[in-house]
Design brief:
It is built from twelve helices and nine strands. Strands 2-1-3-4-8-9 form a six-stranded parallel beta sheet, with helices on both faces. About 40% of the residues lie in helices and about 20% in strands. The protein has one domain: Rossmann fold (3-Layer(aba) Sandwich). The chain is of the alpha/beta class. It comes from Actinacidiphila cocklensis. This is Pimeloyl-ACP methyl ester carboxylesterase. Pfam families: Abhydrolase_6.
Amino acid sequence: MKSPLLLRHVRTPLTLMATAGVAVALLALSVPPASAGKAHGSPARKPTVVLVHGAFADSGSWDGVVKRLKRDGYPVVAAANPLRGLPGDAAYVKEIVAGIEGPVVLVGHSYGGSVISDAATGSANVKALVYVAAFLPEKGESAFDLSAKFPGSTLGGTLNAVPITLPDGSKDLDLTIDPAEFHDQFAADVPRGVTDLMAVSQRPVTNAALRDGAGEPAWKTIPSWTVVATQDRNIPAQVQRFMAERAHSHTVEVRASHAVSVSHPGEVAKVIEQAAAGSAG
């Protein structure tokens, strides 16, 4: 008597034909025709959100915002801003944007606002700019100039400076916020357990970066949205309002410290999504 294993391999042509017929029928039921799902068109892809942190922060400062944007279906890139000088930092972000297929919403915090203003100029796929407690400089203005335009910034007295030599051989200073001052100066509405970590992981910025004059600003030709942090001790709220009004930016005020993306990620994400929706079409 033949074993069951052998019997499974001995089939008549009729059996094979029947089996094939069943398979074809099942395939026809389970695979829709090529035109299925296209009658109403595929859903439009959401723009990619590129987040650019500022001085004394890193990409982790966007974590709460990233979580909400990704939950809502947005592709997100949190760029590592070099913080070495405005022309080079902007060129780096411009290259990131150029490598992204489709529309981009470019978001900057603090000094990152100066960076996105320069980076978006001439970048055809940037459809909206969002400034989060950030600088919106006019051509030739620096972050240093703007922060001193109206009274209220207490940043200068909290900074530590370390002499450095840049890759081109020039001398400069690397600036950081004294860890003992970080909570009150940068993120007073964030729990100290969090700000203790932020103080350690803060990225230094060169003195030159904060004094570099901006190029032709993209906010003159690209729609912009601004989050004003009303309790900001780095960039006074009066400065933020002045820049937003000058740029005819859609403005939302949040009672928050300079670290508004950390303390109020939901409000920040909401404004970014409004920018994405407002720039569509």
